[in-house]
Amino acid sequence: MKRVTFALLLLVSLAHADEKPIYVDRNVTPPVLLKQVNARLPELKGIYLPSKFLMLEAVITSKGEVTNIKLLRCAHALIDKAVAESMKQWKFKPALKNGKAIAVYLTFASTIHIRY
Prior knowledge:
By secondary structure, this protein is mainly beta. 9% of the residues lie in helices and 46% in strands. A hairpin with a 5-residue loop joins strand 4 and strand 5 (66-73). The termini are close together.
């Protein structure tokens, strides 16, 4: 039986406030994760995978949906695809600027631990 530990680290970047979507800065209340769906990894027996670091950038829309997922640092093609697919199902309370929901870029970093 395999067991996956997925630790999430949320990294926030700075950028110009007039971009759409924008990067979270001190004038923006960051989005809040409401629902996280864990990745369903395919069968990886026979593939040696020590702990792997994965980094993705995504847009959190003003409706709290995850879109435009980009891989910044890959772990393994099968893992990357499974994690990106699970992230599409995540839901957020949207970021706010001046009380209005806005779309923002966020970077997600995770260490993947696979146990059999």
